[in-house]
Amino acid sequence: MHPNAPLIDRHPVRTIRLVSDVPDFAALYSDSSLSPRCAARIWAIAELIYDDFHQGFGDEILATLPPIARLHVDERFESAFASRLAIIAKRVAEGLDCLETIASCTADEIAVHLILAMLDEINNMADPDWIERIPACEDDDQIEWLDELLLGDTDVLMLYNPALDGIEDPNSAVNQHLGCANLHPNDWFKPLASCG
User: In whole angstroms, what is the distance from residue 92 CA to residue 137 CA?
Assistant: First the structure.
């Protein structure tokens, strides 16, 4: 289950534009399992969240991180996490040949889950008109399976489960049994195995 994501304050003027123009999502994702509209929504939300970090509103997002991660949040962690949102937005804007390349580290996986949890809120967070002009397809509203499509696994969500406290320790029996990688916040920015 996705963690609850905050409703982020929207500002009348965006201060950050990670790419100069809105990408041609219809062309980039015409032959993809990820629909062009879903790609556009993911990109827009990643940009909006990154912009909020830039404007000093990152605390709302950081408050949604797993409890173990919140213990490790400092200025350096916040800056590194914000940069992952920019990287995700850039990857989506360039087109994902292999969808799982959206996330190359645990921080990316958490960021993707937060973005996906906010997809239903896109109309409240941004002007949706340009997204609605992207040709529709039947998969546009089926967001419940996007985490499986974009991420190799959902191990990182176990960090939200109080019954699994300690799973972030690579020496824990549960972690070793499940083969979880880089769940401790100190390891969130280390590369994961790449898409094959």
Answer: 18
Distances (CA, A) of 156 to 111, 153, 169: 11, 8, 13
> Could you say which DSSP state residue 2 is in?
P
Quote the CA–CA distance of 39 and 2 in Å, as a whole number: 18
Tell me, yes or no, if the pTM score tops 0.70: yes
pLDDT for 5-56, tens place per residue? 444 444 444 444 555 578 999 999 999 989 999 999 999 999 999 999 989 9
Whole-number Å distance between alpha carbons of 44 and 119: 10
Q: Half-sphere exposure (CA, 13 Å, Cβ side) for 159?
A: 28
Q: For the chain, give every domain's residue range.
A: 25-187
How far is it, in rounded angstroms, from Cα 42 to Cα 169? 31
